[in-house]
Amino acid sequence: MPTYEYQCRKCKKRHEAFQAITAKPLTKCPRPKCGGRLARLLSRGAGFIFKGSGFYATDYRSKSYQEAKKKDQPATAPAPKTSSDGSCASGGPCKSGGSCP
Prior knowledge:
Blueprint: E1 3-8, E2 14-18, E3 38-40, H1 63-72
Antiparallel strand pairs: 1-2, 1-3
């Protein structure tokens, strides 16, 4: 159900009402001592924010598209090989964790 915005013609206060689309517009100000006539204001609408997975066009792509995308991505360069003595192929010592510079 949408939220409608009204403005009282007498006290100039704005009010929001959560109403069904088929409901009749409010006509009387909800303030107890006012009782003025309400005018329904035009609304720009609300912006939607979708969070999480499943809201983007790329989330539901076909398997053939995903496979073609993987083929188009550049291959990662293989890490330099280490020799049996623990030194890198470039001749220097390996970093901790076995990775070469």
